[in-house]
Structure formats: structure tokens, C-alpha cells
């Protein structure tokens, strides 16, 4: 059983299609979306492409929706083998929303609500399960706009509770207008993906036994609604690394608890003088 969050379009849509093709008809691959009509339309498109995933409504901003999916998976299958956390948001560069609002909403969806999905579905993970969080190289860009003190902290191993505190602190600073004084960069999306990356590292350390592997990855700059269709990569090129990680064979020794780009591990990269374009 595989679940891909936020998958009625874009990279998530391509991940579902590729998982269906690679895993075959013995797998139940679930396309999820907030809106049932959009989910049905996505299923129809995929059927024309020769694959037939299943659908379940999922809004990661809703605890009730997440709990409903968890109960369904437990009752129907007794567990879960693949979880791809793809659902995320990003404000456009020309957004007039106050930064405090952008920080609170973006961190809520991309970090806290991804964690909400993990909290609900991790107890269902079967032996040899694979978890993939969609991250971004923008996390490196955000790191390189942070103060040296914060850079040092972010690149050291930390617990999930410490990661949570950092994300809470960033939002509080954004509301108080003291983001930069605290050493944070002025990028809500970038910091949200720093959080996802740190969450990945912490979860991978915490999970014990049963060959459950957790990684995160950057799909690259992909032609999607989120990038206003400016990315040079196709959604299928963006789906390649997430699908690779989701289908790692049993007993794999690496990558485990890593951040990847184009199937290669990418450690934190601190580059003096680096700036966000």
C-alpha cells in the first residue's frame, strides 16, 4: 500500500503514475487531494495513461481528514508500505501578504501538517516501509542566509522536539518582526523546508528496527503551478528521485536519513557569501 499526499497534479501526480507502473497491480497506490472532484479528474487522466491508482480524500491541514485516512488504511490493509509527503504550499514572489502571515501559514502546512501526517501514519508503517519527504535545495539557500550562529545550530544533530522549537521560534519572530535579528533568513518557504529536512534527520535516527527507511529529497526546479511553470524540469523528471527513494529495496544500507538531489546525497552546504537570487 502506497500513499502520496497532494497528488492530484504536478510532481505528486507523476509520482503516483510512476509508482503504479513500477509496483504493478498487486499494489494499492493512493492518489490523495483535498478536493474530491479534482481527485476524480486526476484518476481519469491516469486511467487514460494506462494506470489505475485508488483515491482517498486528504487535507493535511485538517486533523479530522488525516485521522480518517489513518483509520481507513488500518481497517482496510492493517498498515502502510510507502508514504510520500508531497503536499506543500508556497506564496508567490509578488504576494502582498504580510511576512508574518506567510511564515505562519507556510510553516503550518509544510512542516507541522507534514508532521501531523507522520504522527498519524507512522504507527501503521509495515516492516521495510519507505518514507519520502519532498524537500528543496531552497533549504540550503535559507541556511546560507542565516547567521553563522544559527548555521552552526542547524547543521548539528538535533531532536525532533528541538526542530519543533526552532520552527515555533521562527514563526514567533516573524510575528514580532525580529526574524533577521534572530539570525533567520526572510524566507518562509525556505525555512519550512529547513524544518522538513531537519525533521527527516531526526525521524530517521528515532525510528527503530523493521528496516523502515526515511529520506527527503529535492525534486529540482519543476514546471508546476507552484513555480508558475517556470521550472525547466518536467513533472516526471521531478518525480524520479522521490520514486527511487520510495522503492529502495529491502535491507538497503544507504541512503538512510539523507537529503538527495538527482538520486545523490546532498549534505548541508554552507557557502560564505551565498545569497538567494
TrEMBL record:
Gene3D superfamilies: NAD(P)-binding Rossmann-like Domain
One Gene Ontology molecular-function label: carbonyl reductase (NADPH) activity
EC number: 1.1.1.184
PROSITE patterns per record: ADH_SHORT
Keywords of the record: NADP, Oxidoreductase
Annotated InterPro entries: CBR1-like, NAD(P)-bd_dom_sf, Sc_DH/Rdtase_CS, SDR_fam
Presence of keyword NADP: yes
PANTHER family (alphabetical): CARBONYL REDUCTASE (NADPH), CARBONYL REDUCTASE 1-RELATED
Family listed: Belongs to the short-chain dehydrogenases/reductases (SDR) family.
Protein name, as recorded: carbonyl reductase (NADPH)
Organism: Macrostomum lignano
Amino acid at each position: 500500500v502506497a500513499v502520496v499526499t497532494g497528488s492530484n497534479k504536478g510532481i505528486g501526480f507523476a509520482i503516483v503514475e510512476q509508482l503504479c507502473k513500477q509496483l504493478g497491480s498487486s499494489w494499492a497506490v493512493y492518489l490523495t487531494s483535498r478536493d474530491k472532484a479534482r481527485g476524480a479528474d486526476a484518476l481519469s487522466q491516469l486511467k487514460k495513461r494506462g494506470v489505475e491508482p485508488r483515491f482517498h480524500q486528504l487535507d493535511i491541514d485538517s486533523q479530522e481528514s488525516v485521522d480518517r485516512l489513518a483509520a481507513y488504511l488500518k481497517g482496510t490493509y492493517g498498515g502502510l508500505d510507502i508514504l510520500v509527503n508531497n503536499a506543500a504550499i508556497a506564496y508567490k514572489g509578488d504576494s502582498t501578504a504580510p511576512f508574518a502571515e506567510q511564515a505562519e501559514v507556510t510553516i503550518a502546512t509544510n512542516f507541522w501538517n507534514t508532521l501531523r501526517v507522520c504522527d498519524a501514519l507512522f504507527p501503521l508503517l509495515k516492516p521495510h516501509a519507505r518514507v519520502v519527504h519532498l524537500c528543496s535545495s531552497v533549504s540550503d539557500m535559507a541556511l546560507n542566509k542565516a547567521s553563522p550562529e544559527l548555521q552552526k545550530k542547524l547543521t548539528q544533530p538535533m531532536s525532533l522536539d528541538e526542530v519543533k522549537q526552532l520552527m515555533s521560534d521562527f514563526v514567533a519572530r516573524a510575528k514580532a518582526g525580529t526574524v533577521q535579528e534572530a539570525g533567520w533568513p526572510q524566507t518562509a518557504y525556505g525555512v519550512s523546508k529547513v524544518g522538513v529536512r531537519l525533521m527527516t534527520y531526526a525521524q530517521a535516527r528515532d525510528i527503530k528496527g523493521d528496516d523502515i527507511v526515511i529520506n527527503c529529497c529535492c525534486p529540482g526546479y519543476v514546471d508546476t503551478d507552484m513555480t508558475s511553470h517556470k521550472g525547466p524540469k518536467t513533472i516526471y523528471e521531478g518525480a524520479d528521485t522521490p520514486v527511487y527513494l520510495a522503492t529502495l529495496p529491502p535491507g538497503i544500507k544507504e541512503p538512510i536519513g539523507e537529503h538527495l538531489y538527482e538520486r545523490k546525497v546532498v549534505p548541508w552546504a554552507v557557502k560564505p557569501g551565498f545569497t538567494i537570487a
